[in-house]
Design a protein that fits this description.
elongated, 3-stranded antiparallel beta sheet, about 400 residues, about 60% helix, alpha+beta, disordered N terminus
Length: about 400
């Protein structure tokens, strides 16, 4: 006890012990607000019927304003520290005030974010660009005020000096300014994150984002090369971000099978009976037979040309749709259809449009391959042929048949 009293009687030790106690008290008050006051505010916010308080809390307004309290306590408590010289008090006060201004800037930024979210709930008229400009101005003015506070000078001369040097600053730091503005927009609009898969053909990028800095964005392509893109290009040029696909939980399959038009025909009674044995076509064939029977009976003794009949192409399209609908790896809550596209002289396109229940690349390709393996293999069962351009084997077989026919004629 005597040792403590002896230390307390020394002016330097007493001064530093008071500063330490002030720091400790400010830190404990900060913990008190984070652990007790903020959870209490959260409970109150959840129980109120208003929207604005929920938005303010989610934007972190209360949390950021709470961070101002500890440095504010330290700033106001310095006058009670004994044996503290005027110069030391000014320096510590300047440092505490700079921290207060920094946290105040972040709190104002959170208020602007909350204002944008509230406006989005009320109307579709965008004000985000204006709020971002205000946010940039707040940070610029705040930085100048912090510098003025730390150097213990007036802020207005610094602002006027920056205005006089603005032309030189714009020229020297052009890329930095462009990168800063781009970084703010990318972050504020949540346009790009590390780990996103992006495609940017103009920059030769197709892969995962591995780094986002002030000046560059690095993309590791799927061939393991790295493409470096200036950050400002990410807001001045278009690119595709696949994050939405991963968030949705389904990856699209959009591929066509080209059917040889010469293989399309009306199905016979035997073929109808055969298709009725398909588990996926049984209900369809029964319903269609009844529908066509009623339609054709209403025509009376009309020519068969005027009667409706089933086609092998329509039956295949229905089978493909039923196969996709019952596939265990197809996403049930996303669009799923098999449709016929316009023919452009290269067969009749039958397109499968659906989404897999996984976004993993390897599994997605396996699912897609299994589906089309089956559809290609089942084509002959419907009397259909896949359309493809003549190959060397086709040309040789045609030449052989022509030679054989010519030999027969000579004989």
């Amino acid at each position: 006890m005597e040792f403590v009293l002896s230390i307390w009687q020394q002016p330097v030790a007493k001064r530093w012990l008071c500063i330490f106690a002030l720091l400790l008290g400010a830190w404990l008050v900060g913990i008190f607000f984070r652990r007790l006051v903020l959870p209490l505010i959260r409970l109150i916010v959840k129980r109120t019927p208003w929207l604005w308080d929920d938005v303010l809390f989610e934007a972190g307004v209360f949390k950021r304003f709470a961070r101002i309290i500890p440095p504010l306590i330290f700033y106001n408590g310095l006058e009670y520290v004994p044996n503290l010289s005027e110069r030391a008090e000014e320096r510590l006060s300047s440092f505490a005030m700079a921290i207060i201004i920094l946290f105040l800037m972040r709190a104002i930024s959170a208020v602007l974010i909350a204002a944008e979210r509230l406006q989005h709930h009320k109307t579709d008229r965008p004000i985000k660009g204006y709020l971002q400009l205000i946010n940039i101005l707040v940070y610029m003015i705040g930085v100048v005020v912090i510098i003025a506070t730390l150097t213990q000078r007036e802020a207005w001369p610094l602002l006027s000096g920056l205005g006089a040097l603005s032309a030189v600053l714009l020229l020297v730091f052009k890329d930095t300014i462009l990168g800063f503005v781009a970084s703010v927009q990318l972050s504020s609009n949540d346009m790009l994150r590390i780990g996103d898969w992006i495609e940017m053909p103009s920059a030769g990028a197709d892969g995962d984002v591995i780094d986002i800095s002030l000046h560059t964005v690095k993309v590791r392509n799927f061939d393991q090369t790295i493409t470096t893109i200036p950050t400002w290009r990410m807001i001045s040029e278009s690119y595709k971000n696949w994050r939405g696909m991963f968030d949705a939980g389904g990856r699209r399959i959009k591929r066509s099978i080209l059917i040889d038009a010469t293989s399309v025909h009306f199905i016979t009674a035997e073929e109808t009976q055969k298709f009725a044995e398909f588990r996926l076509l049984d209900r369809y064939i029964r319903a269609k037979k009844q529908e066509l029977l009623e339609w054709n009976e209403a025509l009376g003794k009309a020519s068969p040309v005027n009667q409706r009949r089933l086609t092998n192409l329509g039956s295949f399209r229905t089978y493909a749709q039923a196969y996709i609908d019952t596939h265990k790896d197809i996403h049930r809550s996303m669009p799923c259809m098999v449709r016929q596209l316009a023919s452009e002289g290269a067969g009749i396109p039958i397109e499968v449009y659906c989404f897999t229940s996984t976004t993993a690349w390897v599994r997605y390709e396996r699912i897609q391959g299994d589906i089309f393996d089956h559809l290609y293999a089942i084509l002959p069962e419907f009397g259909l042929r896949h359309y493809q351009k003549p190959t060397g084997i086709d040309v040789r077989e045609a030449a052989f048949r022509s030679s054989a026919m010519a030999a027969d004629v000579d004989d």
